[in-house]
C-alpha cells in the first residue's frame, strides 16, 4: 500500500542546472525543515549512465526528493528503486516541464495528455519502493483551460497510488514559448488548484507558481497542504531562513546569520575541493543571492563570481569579498 506523504508545508522546486547537491546543501543550512528536490534526472541517465554522479547527495540534505523524467514504466521502476537505495525520501515524476528537449523524450508536461500512461508509470514505481511516489504537473496543456482536464488527470493517477500532487498553477504551452516564457506568460489560475483540493480532500495538494512572499504562502496554506517555491528561493535565499519559525513552528536558530552561512559554505567548498576536486566557483554560484538587498551586495557578488580568482582557496576569496563590502562607496551600497 502507498504511504501518504506528510504535508510538505514548504519545498524548493526542482530546477534544472540550479538545484544540484551543492545548492541543496546551501538551502539546508537556511531551513532545516523544507523539502528539497533534485534537478530532474532522466531514467536514461540512470539506466545507461553514471548512477553515482546523478544520485550522490549529502546526508545533511534530508528531507530530499528525487525527481525523475521518463515515460517507460519499467525504466521508472528501476530508477525509483535506485533512488530509494540511495536514500531519497520521495520519488517525484515530472509531468510539468514544457521544454522541447523533454518533449522529444516523450515526458514532462506532454504526459498530461496520457493520464493512463502516467498511472501505469506511478503504479510501477509504487510497486517497488516504500517511499512516497508523487507527481508534479501543470493545470493544463496548450490552450486547454477546462478544469475537467486536470481533475481527470489527478483522479486517474491517484487511483494508481499517488497521494501527493504538486500543481504548477499555469498551463504548459508546448509550442511557441520558451521554458522561461512558460513560467511567466500563461496566466496563473490558483482557483483550479483550490478546486482540486475540494474535490480530492484525502489527497495532499501542493501549489507552485508565482509565489514570492510569506504572506502569499500563508494565504495558500489556508486552503492547501503545501507550497513549492521556485526562482524566488534561489534568487533570494535568505527568505528560507524565516521558514522554520514561520511555517514549521520551530524556534529560529540564534546563530543563523548570513555571515555564519557563508562561513559554513566556505568550509564546504574546501571539503569538496579536497574530496572531489570541485572548484569553489561551482558551489559559490548558488549563494550569490545570500546578501540580496544588503549594502555592498553587488561588490560581494562580483568577488564570488570572479573566475579570475579560481586559483585562490575559497577562504581567501571570502576575505576579499568582505573587504569589498567594507570598502563599498555609500552611493553603491544597496546595489
TrEMBL record:
It comes from the Bacteria. Its cofactor is FMN. SUPFAM superfamilies: FMN-linked oxidoreductases. Residues 12-308 form the DUS-like FMN-binding domain. Keywords: Flavoprotein, FMN, NADP, Nucleotide-binding, Oxidoreductase, RNA-binding, tRNA processing, tRNA-binding. The active site is at residue 97. This is tRNA-dihydrouridine(20/20a) synthase. The gene is dusA.
Amino acid at each position: 500500500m502507498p504511504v501518504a506523504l506528510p504535508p510538505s508545508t514548504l519545498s524548493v522546486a526542482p530546477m534544472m542546472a540550479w538545484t544540484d547537491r551543492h545548492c541543496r546543501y546551501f538551502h539546508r543550512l537556511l531551513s532545516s525543515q523544507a523539502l528539497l528536490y533534485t534537478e530532474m534526472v532522466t531514467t536514461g541517465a540512470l539506466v545507461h549512465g553514471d548512477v553515482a554522479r546523478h544520485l550522490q547527495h549529502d546526508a545533511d540534505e534530508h528531507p530530499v526528493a528525487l525527481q525523475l523524467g521518463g515515460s517507460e514504466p519499467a525504466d521508472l521502476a528501476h530508477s525509483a528503486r535506485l533512488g530509494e537505495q540511495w536514500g531519497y525520501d520521495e520519488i517525484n515524476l515530472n509531468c510539468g516541464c514544457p521544454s522541447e528537449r523533454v518533449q522529444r523524450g516523450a515526458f514532462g508536461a506532454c504526459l498530461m495528455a496520457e493520464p493512463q500512461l502516467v498511472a501505469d508509470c506511478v503504479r510501477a514505481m509504487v510497486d517497488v519502493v516504500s517511499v512516497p511516489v508523487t507527481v508534479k504537473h501543470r493545470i493544463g496543456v496548450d490552450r486547454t483551460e477546462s478544469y475537467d482536464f486536470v481533475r481527470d488527470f489527478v483522479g486517474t493517477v491517484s487511483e494508481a497510488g499517488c497521494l501527493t500532487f504538486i500543481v504548477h498553477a499555469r498551463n504548459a504551452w508546448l509550442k511557441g514559448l520558451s521554458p522561461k516564457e512558460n513560467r511567466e506568460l500563461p496566466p496563473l489560475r490558483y482557483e483550479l488548484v483550490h478546486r482540486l483540493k475540494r474535490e480530492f480532500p484525502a489527497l495532499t495538494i501542493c501549489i507552485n507558481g508565482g509565489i514570492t512572499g510569506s504572506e502569499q504562502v500563508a494565504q495558500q496554506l489556508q486552503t492547501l497542504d503545501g507550497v513549492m517555491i521556485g526562482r524566488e528561493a534561489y534568487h533570494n535565499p535568505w527568505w528560507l531562513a524565516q521558514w522554520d519559525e514561520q511555517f514549521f513552528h520551530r524556534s529560529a536558530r540564534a546563530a543563523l546569520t548570513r555571515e555564519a552561512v557563508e562561513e559554513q559554505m566556505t568550509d564546504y567548498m574546501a571539503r569538496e575541493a579536497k574530496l572531489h576536486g570541485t572548484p569553489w566557483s561551482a558551489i559559490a554560484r548558488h549563494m550569490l543571492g545570500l546578501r540580496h538587498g544588503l549594502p555592498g551586495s553587488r561588490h560581494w557578488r562580483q568577488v564570488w563570481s570572479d573566475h579570475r580568482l579560481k586559483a585562490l582557496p575559497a577562504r581567501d576569496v571570502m576575505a576579499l569579498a568582505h573587504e569589498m563590502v567594507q570598502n563599498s562607496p555609500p552611493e553603491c551600497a544597496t546595489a
